[in-house]
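Re: the request from the purification team.
They wanted to know what the chain is likely to look like in 3D before they choose a buffer screen. I agreed to run a prediction and write the result into the notebook, where they can find it.
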Amino acid sequence: QVQLAESGGGLVQPGGSLTLSCVASGNIKSRYYIMGWYRQAPGKQRELVADIRTGGTVTMADPVKGRFTITRDNVKNTIYLQMSDLKPEDTAVYYCWFMFYSNEHYWGQGIQVTVSS
């Protein structure tokens, strides 16, 4: 089992910034894995925000390109999502996601991000 601990959410005004962190712990049996963030707004499906592979390859959703940055610390098994120029439509529960290349995957419990004046 892999446990994911998310932090950094909260309330921010439009145009503001937040950084989310997710630490993976437990049975990390391989250094080859993908970590990322999904989000789910009320009444909408869960969608990919960004993910990053062991070698650093990043996938970023179009709505957040140029505003969000995902980085990874392989020693700490941690990823960071730096979010800037936040918009009300970024309001959602953000879920950390972890997947070994074997497709075994895990989800965090989710963290609320609210963008509102």
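For the purification team: The mean pLDDT is 96.
Please add any questions underneath this entry.
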